[in-house]
Design brief:
Blueprint lengths: L1 H25 L3 H14 L4 H13 L3 H14 L4 H13 L3 H14 L4 H13 L3 H17 L11 H4 L6 H19 L15 E7 L6 H12 L5 E7 L7 H9 L2 E4 L5 H10 L4 E4 L9 H5 L5 E4 L14 E4 L15 E4 L31 E4 L8 H13 L4 E5 L4 H10 L7 E4 L4 H7 L5 E3 L8 H8 L4 E2 L10 H8 L10 H13 L1 H17 L5 H20 L7 E2 L2
Parallel strand pairs: 1-2, 1-4, 2-3, 4-5, 5-6, 6-7, 7-13, 8-9, 8-11, 9-10, 11-12
Length: about 575
């Protein structure tokens, strides 16, 4: 009897410690959460939920080798525990073990067919492996549920970012984002006290918050912007809640700001209180609803003006985000109703680019890159989740029309399915060449082996498109129906090549074939691109910084005047 009582007390103690850990975890206190979960396991070593939660918190601290055994052990302790399997599946997906992650999510749905998080988490990895049938079926079912019952709890598992990756009604995307943002606000509680406005004549204090201040696509785009801000009018701060990868980019970024504040170990509230104490006038969210974001910071309202910019090509749906920075291509006037933010229209492309990004000297040989010695090279260095069936069909027809040509793609989890899809369409799978990872300067240099970049549709190349244009590689795009699908068109217009924006899939296909067969026309495009790179707005980082600063000043003027946020254009 005594042993049973002791066992019961330990189990109850484990539950209490586990619940304490969850509260700390949700608040962003990873160290505190880890301690609580360890105390739970000390009380009851076979407590699967605490073991699983400890694995995820350790994972969040990037101690990956330590985390995975904990997550596996939790499932072994209780194979029917849905939460443990969800955590293991999530970690496998984050760790790029996509097939294993999909298997865990499918097992969750076998155990719990109505599990919202598993349904929502499965869509992106299905796209990663180019399982077009599975992804289309799941997306269709989710859209049908939303149409019949928008408040269906099953939809809470669909993250806003995932909703951008497949053709869904824009009203559904906004609704999912609003509901997600509302849950964030409810979790953090009331906002912080409103700070007094800055006195006239003082420098505006602009802060950028992100997990990506390291060797990351956002840093590749924006490093030059941070360096070029006018320090006579602006004080510029970084709040970094991501890893320090000790890269050259990390060092460059730390030097680019007036203050670089590493807050990765702080809670959401502690970070927000720090921002409020620092008297930030305009707080810029570079993450939106993407991985490793911390919207809880913004939900606490630490700054009087808060902006969605660059990292997330869609609406946050959040009443705590005032503005989104855009241009007339990515958000045309008729689409503003699908954004909770007020739209600020920049004069060229919304996407900043760094005109100091280095390209390695010399060009690798075709053989070194796995390319044949002869034949036209089409390339598309987008991630596989952006490739859809209709576009792939067009790509295969393009290859069929240009004998000896190849399609050069990034390596990824969709390789097997893509090769099988090529064979099913009568194309030798060996005409798909997959590129491995290289350091950024070398990756840029190898673009010069390609003749034409073929963009994806629903979600365009973004940083990837800028990379191609920066190296002098012409890019052909087919705009989609959303912000995420119009970015490449925005970039092409800002560099003076609007004729590479195809109005239809048929025109896209026809133009690609024409250019591959007409070396002189392609050479003329390359020549114009080389000239425009230095004369048009797209890669003019100084000009971009001045335009963005005018936008910030206008936002501040509106706020100081006591008016609610309002849309405007920077002329």
């Amino acid at each position: 009897m005594f042993r049973q009582l002791l066992k019961s007390l330990r189990a109850r103690g484990a539950v209490a410690h586990n619940e304490d850990g969850i509260r700390r975890w949700l608040a962003g206190d990873l160290a505190g959460a880890e301690g609580a979960f360890r105390r739970a396991l000390d009380a009851h070593p076979a407590h699967a939920p605490a073991c699983s939660n400890l694995g995820m918190v350790v994972w969040d601290q990037r101690r990956l080798d330590e985390a995975m055994p904990l997550l596996v052990r939790a499932v072994q302790l209780d194979p029917a525990h849905v939460g443990a399997r969800l955590n293991l599946g999530s970690a496998l997906l984050i760790g790029n073990r996509i097939d294993a992650g999909i298997a865990q999510l499918r097992e969750v749905l076998r155990l719990d067919p109505g599990n919202a998080k598993a349904h929502g988490s499965l869509l992106k990895p299905l796209l990663d492996v180019c399982d077009w049938d599975g992804a289309a079926d799941l997306a269709s079912k989710l859209a049908e549920r939303w149409a019949s019952r928008p408040d269906d709890p099953l939809l809470e598992g669909v993250l806003p970012f995932t909703s951008l990756l497949v053709p869904l009604p824009p009203a559904m995307r906004l609704d999912l984002a609003r509901r997600y943002a509302a849950r964030v606000s409810a979790a953090v509680g009331p906002p912080l006290p409103v700070a007094p406005p800055r006195r006239p004549g003082e420098r505006l204090r602009v802060a950028y918050a992100s997990a990506d201040f390291h060797n990351h696509a956002t840093a590749h785009l924006a490093a030059g912007l941070f360096e070029r801000h006018d320090r006579r009018r602006f004080e510029v701060i970084a709040y970094s809640y991501g890893i320090d990868d000790a890269s050259e980019y990390r060092a460059r970024l730390k030097a680019a700001f007036d203050r670089f504040v590493d807050v990765r170990h702080d809670t959401h509230r502690a970070i927000a209180e720090r921002i409020a104490r620092d008297g930030v006038d305009i707080l810029v969210d570079l993450k939106g609803h993407t991985g490793e974001s911390r919207p809880e910071i913004f939900a606490l309202r630490p700054a009087p003006v808060q902006v969605n910019y660059l990292g997330y090509p869609g609406s946050t749906g959040a009443d705590f985000i005032d503005y989104i920075l855009a241009d007339r291509v990515v958000i045309p006037d008729e689409d503003r109703r699908w954004f909770s933010e007020r739209v600020v229209v920049l004069p060229a492309s919304y996407q900043v680019n760094d005109d100091r990004q280095p390209i390695a000297e010399g060009v690798p040989s075709r053989g070194a890159c796995g390319l044949p010695d002869a034949g036209f090279v089409f390339c598309s260095f987008n991630k596989h989740y952006k490739i859809d069936r209709a576009l792939f069909d067009a790509w295969m027809r393009i290859l069929a029309a240009v004998p000896g040509s190849v399609l050069w793609l990034l390596g990824g989890h969709g390789e097997k399915r893509l090769r099988r899809a090529a064979a099913a369409r009568g194309i030798d799978p060996q005409r798909l060449v997959f590129a491995g990872k290289l350091p950024k300067p070398e990756h840029l240099a190898r673009h010069r082996l390609a003749g034409l970049f073929l963009d994806t549709h629903h979600v365009n190349a973004h940083t990837t498109a800028s990379d191609a244009l920066w190296t002098g590689l012409p890019l052909l795009t087919l705009p989609g129906s959303s912000f995420a699908g119009r970015v490449a068109a925005s970039l092409l217009r800002a560099i003076g090549l609007p004729e590479l924006v195809a109005p239809t899939l048929e025109a896209y296909e026809r133009r690609a074939i024409e250019l591959a067969r007409a070396p002189a026309a392609l050479a003329e495009l390359r020549s114009r691109l080389a000239a425009n790179r230095r004369s048009m707005p797209l890669f003019d980082t100084d000009r971009y910084a001045r335009d963005l600063e005018r936008a910030f000043e206008r936002m501040h003027e509106i706020q100081v005047a006591g008016r609610p946020p309002e849309s405007f254009a920077v002329e």
